[in-house]
Backbone:
């Protein structure tokens, strides 16, 4: 049987790497707010049950694609912020429970697969964790699980070997600086493992260790007892890109999480980087807030724009924070 775990000897696809130079990013307005896809029909909170049923029916029959949007403002005082976020998580958990209970007899292996995509720092990991906790509390412990795609990063050793090949136009340091870009993930293995999970209802998946700055195999398990599966990651909805298009048939529902402004997302990324700002990163980017800002601007912000351009339009539900 083929070994599908991520290992230091995994060799990236050099052909996909060279395509990076031809990737076109959407223009980002001066105010930093990414424009919404005008071609989509957007629904807001307050939708009637009949409207909700019509959306689910159109999705089941393949007769249309609709988006529903949850937009929430964060007040200034922290107590209100926490209350606001809690209300959002409760609302999403109730949506998941209702969807699962109404569709479980028709789901493959009785499992509801929900893709939660978005750029780095958008809040998708926190959202998945909090919503899964509430689903487990409402239904039964352990019924929901989160499978992150971060574990499918190419390892540092793989990037080093890539840089040593004649076909690679980047140095190892340059590859590290763009880590997190679409071509620094093993998209083939990611798609293969998630499609196997959908088919078999179980599997073992790598996770990404921020302490090690590398993927770790077998970090999370999917079991048949897991009936609600959140698959979380940057590129899960980038279906119009050939490297990620095969994921489209994996999910029963697709969510897209985004900050309303890139400024807010950028600040979150800077704070995340500073929590693990190693000497190696100082040498690359500089010290403190300024160095972390350089890293965010040179990589994360570019990736976020690419993700928004390729993913937002495919979502059934958009969750935005302001």
Residues:
């Amino acid at each position: 049987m083929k070994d599908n775990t991520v290992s230091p000897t995994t060799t990236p696809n050099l052909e996909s790497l060279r395509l990076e130079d031809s990737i076109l990013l959407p223009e980002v307005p001066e105010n930093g707010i990414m424009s919404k896809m005008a071609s989509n029909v957007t629904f807001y909170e307050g939708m009637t049950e009949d409207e909700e049923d019509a959306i689910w029916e159109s999705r089941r029959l393949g007769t249309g694609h609709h988006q529903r949007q949850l937009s929430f403002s964060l007040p200034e005082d922290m107590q209100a912020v926490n209350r606001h976020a809690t209300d959002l998580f409760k609302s999403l958990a109730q949506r998941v429970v209702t969807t699962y209970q109404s569709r479980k007899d028709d789901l493959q292996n009785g499992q509801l697969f929900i893709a939660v995509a978005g750029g780095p720092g958008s809040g998708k990991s926190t959202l998945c964790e909090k919503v899964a906790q509430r689903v487990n509390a409402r239904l039964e412990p352990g019924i929901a699980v989160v499978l992150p795609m971060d574990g499918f990063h190419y390892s540092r050793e793989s990037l080093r070997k890539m840089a040593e090949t004649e076909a690679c136009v980047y140095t190892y340091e340059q590859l590290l600086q763009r880590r997190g870009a679409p071509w620094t993930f093993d998209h083939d293995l990611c798609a293969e493992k998630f499609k196997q999970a959908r088919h078999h209802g179980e599997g073992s998946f790598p996770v990404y260790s921020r302490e090690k700055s590398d993927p770790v195999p077998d970090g999370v398990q999917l079991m048949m007892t897991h009936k609600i599966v959140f698959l979380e990651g940057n590129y899960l909805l980038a279906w119009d890109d050939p490297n990620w298009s095969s994921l489209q048939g994996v999910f029963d529902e697709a969510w897209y999480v985004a900050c309303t402004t890139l400024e807010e997302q950028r600040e979150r990324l800077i704070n995340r980087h500073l929590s693990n700002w190693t000497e190696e990163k100082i040498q690359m980017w500089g010290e403190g807030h300024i160095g972390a800002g350089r890293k965010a601007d040179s990589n994360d912000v570019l990736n976020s724009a690419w993700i928004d351009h390729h993913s937002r339009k495919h979502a059934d539900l958009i969750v935005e924070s302001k």
User: Anything to note?
Assistant: The first strand starts at residue 42 and ends at 43. The chain has one domain: 38-321. Strands lie at 42-43, 67-72, 112-117, 144-148, 203-209, 214-222, 228-233, 253-259, 317-321. DSSP finds ten helices and nine strands in the chain.
